[in-house]
Amino acid sequence: MRIAILSDIHGNLEALQVALQYLRENGIDQIYCLGDMVGYGANPNECLDLVAQSCSKVVMGNHDHAAIGQTSVNYFNDYAKLSTYWTLSVLSARSRNFISSLDFTWQDDKILLVHATPANPPFWHYVLTEQDAREEFEAFTQNVCFIGHSHFPVIFSKNEGLIRVQKFMLNKQDKYIVNVGSIGQPRDGNPKTCFCVYDSDTGQLEYIRLDYDAALTREKIIKAGLPLFLGDRLLNGY
Ligand SMILES: [Fe+2]
Hints:
Strand order of the largest sheet: 3-2-1-11-12-9
Strand content: 15-25%
Largest sheet: 6 strands, mixed
Order of helices and strands: EHEHEHHHEEHEEEEEEEHH
Number of strands: 12
Bound molecules: fe (ii) ion
Radius of gyration: 16 Å
Mean pLDDT: 97
Distance between the termini: 32 Å
Helix content: 25-40%
Number of helices: 8
């Protein structure tokens, strides 16, 4: 089965539409979403509607949780805080209901989905280093755990450490934490939208990077009265 895993859409409708178009044209069996559908961007309701229609599994992100008043914004930086207040003010009842229905994890015997960390999903910690990953490997039994949250595409292998490649064959005897990158706000210096396609039969994992109209997304952010920085950063991917 070919599965696409998307994360950290952050109200960026243009990037999400480009990704979904690609998935329609490339014979993907299932789409999973790792949360943070909202926050930062100008189209939270539209993104939530598309995710609800397109994704068979969806887990809760910290920005989603904050947008229904469940996670405190005290630890958010000023940009995240301001955009959360804005999102709270525009979120539809349908969007709130959809977010409220989400769990922190989804799993079967081979795959675990979580936004932040497998050990403590609602604590919203980050897996940034090999040391962080080493502690997290003890928290799950599956072959692979897909995460988002840092917006930085990277693979952690229990046996091989940190791996940064565009294509990789997962070994069924090893264990992996795969950060799928961010659809709506990439932060690895590459402004193209980012997600993963995983073939659960062969173990083949591929990062897909696609151009989208980031200038239009930036315009919408500015028009909505959100901080200019949240628009500008999309042009550079940081
Ligand atoms: Fe995020």
